[in-house]
Description:
Layout: H1 2-13, H2 18-41, E1 56-66, E2 69-78, H3 92-107, H4 113-121, H5 129-147, E3 157-169, E4 172-184, E5 190-198, H6 203-215, E6 223-226, H7 232-240, E7 243-246, H8 248-256, H9 260-275, H10 280-294, H11 299-312, H12 323-326, H13 333-346, E8 348-349, H14 352-372, H15 380-383
Helix pairs in contact: 3-4, 3-5, 3-13, 3-14, 5-14, 6-7, 8-11, 9-10, 10-11, 13-14
Amino acid sequence: MTDEMMNLRTLVEKTPDADLLREMIGFAAQRLMELEVEGQTGAAYGEKSPERLVQRNGYRDRIWETRAGAVELRIPKLRKGTYFPGFLEPRRMAEKALTAVVQEAYVQGVSTRSVDDLVQAMGMTGISKSQVSRLCGEIDDKVKAFLARPIEGDWPYLWIDATYVKVRQNGRIVSVAVIIAVGVNNDGRREVLGMDVGPSEAETFWTAFLRKLARRGLRGVKLVVSDAHEGIKATVAKVLNATWQRCRVHFMRNALAHAGKSGRRVVSAFIATAFAQDDAEAARAQWRRVADQLRPKVPKLAAFLDEAETDVLAYMSFPAAHRAKLHSTNPLERVNGEIKRRTEVVGIFPNEDAIIRLVGAILLEQNDEWAVQRGRYMTLETIAPLSDDPIVGLPAVAG
């Protein structure tokens, strides 16, 4: 009976009736989602009920890849909270990308012992190069389309960060930089805007990366947040004509290295008083007072504060409601943590394409998760005044 069912499915998938099968799958999936949302909201679609828990908020289009082909779904959205159908498996693509990279490394004979063990644990013995190529091609097309998509609208805030992974090049194992850019648009929504792989974080690499984003449509950037790597500041001013914010967390680590073990707690508390001020002018005044207090005993630290003042306090000139998310690259930490977790499984990548495949799939999924979140990363009311579009900056109700 099982063989007969498998043969029937194969036949259907190879005939025009596959369209009918996709329609049936789509109908069933759509009905299942409506029932799940009905249970989550406490009322059916369009029903007025005192027992309703939350209002619906339209739909989000999503393509669902099935054995019968691509099925177009409309995922319901909620005004409060989030809904995501379990049958779509939010982490599916990243897991497939990880599998593809591990397989490729295994086939090319460059995998480490841990990867060999993982391959066997996943039952992936007897892998053929054609199987690997087919799986890689399927993922690469989606990732490349995602990373090359047009960037529309204004993006007042941009966070860029880098992590390092090992890859095999010309018979040698080298460390390469993986750069990621995340932005918030004038609607207060957060998106992954791009990624790239390069030999190091040299100024030329940063310049090429930001110019690529600009060619795809990135505009309206007011503030770029990053670590203090050489060349970033000049590149940001040259390519985006934006203010640069030096990551406050990384700055504090560097500053406390000048204080010695016994003085770190006191110095940290001193510097924190500048961050606690209500506006940029007060913060700069307090910063200089702290530097002057430290100068007699710790002159190198005071000079370090003098040099870093403008870059570390840049975020204070922006809306107070945004500052907690602007002073450092912390908003990228969760993304970087997920990337590290997955890339450490691979150990040594067989080539740069494999890096883009895995990291790109992780970023694509992260972007999807942000897209279905009900709440904006920054409220529309606080971010609208930053837009270069005069229509966006108008008040919601005319005075």
